[in-house]
Amino acid sequence: MTEPSQPPSRGRGRPRDPETDAAILRVALEVFVERGVEGASIEQIAKRASVGKLTIYRRWDSKEKLLAQAIESARGDIPEPSDHDVAALPVVELIEHILPAAAATLAAPDFRALIARVLGSAVSHPILMATYWEHYILPRRRVTRLLLERAVHQSVLAADTDIDALMDMMVGAVIYRLVQPDPLDATEMASYLRSVYRQAGLLPLDHLSGPAISARRDPLEASDRKHSAS
Fold this sequence. Notes:
230 residues; 11 helices; disordered N terminus
């Protein structure tokens, strides 16, 4: 007498729906940009994403981990050149190739808000800054290093250039510009980036491809000038 066949064993719950994951991450990023870490809650995110709180907690066991992955998921929105482009194109041509998309991203209000939120949460929620550093900063530093090494090899930059210090100076200039209260539009940002590249020695000083930036004063500098005149 044959034994009755056993029903196939069931897995531990239903497989995760990638579309649900994507919707939750998209909403989590929106809420983080709008309200910051302290102002965001799992309840708000669940309601806006039209899912239950349990659906979120099955995937992420804390708000910080959810927000960290949401920040990571937005990395694909930022263009970056391929290794082939970096290796094949002359330095000036490569810069002009990547500059329009980079300027558009940096000028986008949501991106500026994301940067401000991440910087503002660096002390109280270091996991978010660590995620931003790993998935945004480090990949772009790698590409920038390749670009600068090519510039040294092509004698665009001096052989003894301190590449790490130069990268920090360039990134610092851009971050400082992003957090100023008078944001640039994409055209102005492209001109500003060209100026940064020129000052770094990567573009000729007479290289003015694209519309020139309107002369906007640093608000702190303008304030100092006003007080000096009075």
